[in-house]
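Async update (no meeting this week)

Hi team, since we skipped the sync, here's where things stand on the single-chain job. The sequence we agreed to prioritize is pasted below, unchanged from the tracker. I ran it this morning and attached the output directly underneath so nobody has to dig for it. Comments welcome in thread, and please keep replies under the output.
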Amino acid sequence: MTLFKRIFGGKPQSHEAIIFTSIPQSWSVLRSENNGMPMIVRKNLGCEKIAGHSEYTTSCGIAFKILLPSAEGLPNFDLEPSLNEMEDDIFDILESDLNSIVPIVITTSRFREFVIYTKDLNEFQKRLESLRSKYSQYELTSFSKPDPNWRTYKSFN
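Output:
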């Protein structure tokens, strides 16, 4: 984009020109099935504005087995209140300084997975280790892969 267009009303052509100081919040709940079990996907639609941002090109996941699920494989928060605390910590620890963004949470078949985009994979790994230490009763598994266009995020409609 030319300087003239930037000064006189041209719009940025990509998400890399977007500067944000907080993560936009507009959550939606999608319901489906996975292997005959209910699946609940919470998607932050506010992230549409930043999906594909040039600083967040690595997709990561944190997944774990729910210890005391309902018969449908969903969380039973009365029996397992630590799930709420852990979720709060995942958001707080990963997103507090915008190192990572958690735009999707998937719950199905006795598992919960957080889909994450990060700009510093090493820092993400350090924070994941602190979560593993605090919530040692859960086996927090993780993966990472390049996803500069946020295909994983965009695949949940």
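Quick observations from my side:
The radius of gyration is 17 Å.
The mean pLDDT is 90.
Reply here if anything looks off.
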